[in-house]
Amino acid sequence: MLRYLPFLLVLALWIYAFIDCLNTPESQVRGLPKVVWVLIILLFGEVLIGPIAWLVAGKQRQRVAGGGGSTPAEWHRNHSTPWVAPDDNPEFLRSLREENKKDEALLKDWEADLRRREEELRRKESGAAEGGTGTGGASSSDGNDPTSGKSDRKGPEDTPPAPPTAH
């Protein structure tokens, strides 16, 4: 496979130079008429003299419009903006703040929904406990369960926050 590589490179350069010569306007052709350059490329293409001659001497090369360099790399060197790290970029930091606000609002909504659901569940449990004690067993009115030693009283950490207001 590698033995065909030189042939393919010569063929690729030959084809490139031929197409480039055909697509070049007559005003940009240097030295000889365009037809003569096409014949040189075709006749001397196998030995690379024709395509290399066209690329070096046959076509007038122009600078990039607006100056500043003839290659993209030169243009970028002359027209580059200073690089700013993300943590120093005010636009990036502003976008992070906006995303954080959206995330915090979503989290608050989820927390409010969770509190509401917990409160509903507590109401259902307390309603079932008050209405479901008709089995004849003794029920303590002070909220203490004498058999388990646990208290049903809610401390400040168990008290749910006030229900959220509607948006």
Features:
mainly alpha, 5 helices, rod-shaped
Descriptive overview:
By secondary structure, the chain is mainly α. Helices cover 53% and strands 0% of the residues. It has 5 helices and no strands. It has helices at residues 5-23, 34-43, 49-58, 72-78, 90-131. The protein is rod-shaped, with a radius of gyration of 42 Å. The two termini are 72 Å apart. Residues 134-141 have low confidence and may be disordered.
Give the strand content.
Answer: under 5%
3D shape: rod-shaped
Low-confidence stretches: 134-141
Distance between the termini: 72 Å
- Cα-atom Rg, whole angstroms? 42 Å
Sheet having the most strands = none
Report mean pLDDT, rounded to a whole number: 78
Class by alpha and beta content: mainly alpha
Q: Count the DSSP helices.
A: 5
Topology order in helix (H) and strand (E) letters: HHHHH
Count of individual beta strands: 0
Helix content: 40-55%
In short:
53% of the residues lie in helices and 0% in strands. It has helices at residues 5-23, 34-43, 49-58, 72-78, 90-131.
What secondary-structure arrangement, pairings included, does this model have?
Elements: H1 5-23, H2 34-43, H3 49-58, H4 72-78, H5 90-131
